[in-house]
Amino acid sequence: MSTATTTSDIGGSPRTRAIAEFWHYFSENKGAVVGLCFVGIVICCAIFAPLIAPYSPEEQFRDYFLVPPVWEDGGSSMFLLGTDAVGRDILSRLIYGARYSLAAGCVIIALTLTSGIGLGLTAGYVRGWFEVLVMRLMDIILSVPSLLLALVLVTVLGPGLFSAIVAIAVTYVPHFVRLTRAQVISEAQRDYVTASRVAGAGTLRLMVIAILPNCMAPLIVQATMSFSTSILDVAALGFLGVGAQPPTPEWGRMLAEAREFITRAWWVVTFPGLAILLTVLAINLMGDGLRDALDPKMKRS
């Protein structure tokens, strides 16, 4: 029996069948499954950091400056990945840093989705002068390089992780507004919307209950891809010194603090860089799987 037949013959409620079909197409992408597992591990590390991390991320061991990893000559079993220039355990800071990077990404996507979907849904359904006003504003934001705009906004708001989150969210809003508007314009012409309107559904109900759920699949994929990019942007602002401030163990900030030791203590730069690289790669792989599972054009029989 073919795999497609097996998935189509699954019994149970429609929701159960939908979940089974989603997992079937998602799991066909092995890279997406690996990415999901890795992201799950990072999330667990972030949640249970106080239980997993050997030490506090701010604790300093003044007799152990720039200790190499345990497998290097001069390494210590007390510090598996070594210590930084002020004697802080790198492994502990990486584990706690997952909290800041993931939390920042989640808040950025939440702000972006809320504002982007709200503006795009209204502009695509109402049309007219409001649509023109919103889209021209989005075009103005897109005309400025995103990192430059984020730097300007952080300068206005003041350095800090919260300012970086708000600034990055502003630069992401146009992408969600344009995607939502395009989806709404396409869905508004469907027969089910006309039927709902004839049945007496109000404007708000048509927008939120009838149209929006059918626009969510590409928005979820876009949100996943933007989540990985947001982690990079938060790290970039932290590296430039306008994001997370010391002694916050944010991965980009850790890179900034370690750059002067890159030639004589490779571990203080390598491990935060690997944390960013692997996490972003895993989220991108997971996003590819979501695209395969949610986009009907990508599904294979």
From TrEMBL:
Localization terms from the record: Cell membrane
A GO molecular function annotation here is: dipeptide transmembrane transporter activity
**Superkingdom of this entry's organism?**
Bacteria
Q: Which UniProt keywords apply?
A: Cell membrane, Membrane, Peptide transport, Protein transport, Transmembrane, Transmembrane helix, Transport
Q: Which residues form the ABC transmembrane type-1 domain?
A: 98-287
One GO cellular component, as annotated: plasma membrane
Q: Which GO terms describe its biological process?
A: protein transport
Q: Which parts pass through the membrane?
A: 32-53, 102-126, 146-173, 194-213, 219-244, 265-286
Report the membrane topology from the UniProt record. Answer: Multi-pass membrane protein
Q: Which family does it belong to?
A: Belongs to the binding-protein-dependent transport system permease family.
Question: What is this protein's name?
Answer: ABC transporter permease subunit
Q: Which organism is it from?
A: Pacificispira spongiicola
